[in-house]
Amino acid sequence: MKVAIGCDHGGLNLKASVKELLNALGHEVEDFGCHTADSCDYPDIAVPVANAVVSGQVDRGILICGTGIGIGIAANKIKGVRAALCHDSFSAKYSRAHNDANILTMGERVIGPGLAKDIVTIWMATDFEGGRHERRVEKIKALEK
Prior knowledge:
single chain; alpha/beta; five-stranded parallel sheet; 5 strands; globular
C-alpha cells in the first residue's frame, strides 16, 4: 500500500519509528513533513496528507502530533476523510473494520514507539468489513453534502 505520513514538531520522533515500520512491512511511504524539531502548525501537515488520501494519490494516511487530537481535527475538516485517533490496538482494529478510517492519528506524548508500532501494524492489516457498517459509513459521508 502507499501511505502518506506527516507530523508536527510534537510527533517527529514517533513518525520516524512508524515510517521505519511501514517500510519494513513493504509499504511505500510518502512523507509530508515536518522534518525538523522547529515549531510548526499541524493543519499545515494534516491538509496535504488528507488531500492525498481523498484524491487517491495514496491509499491511507497516518498523522502524528503531541496528542493526535489537533492534527486529527484538522484532517477531518477535509471532505472524505475519516481520521481516527487510536492509542490502543482494539480501537485501531475497529476504526478500520467498522468505520473504514482512512487516516490514523496518534500522539507521541501519549504513547511510545512499541505500542505505536502495534497499532500501525493492526491498522494497516485490517480491512473494512462492510455489511451493516457500510450503511453507517454512508450516513457519515452524507453529512458532508
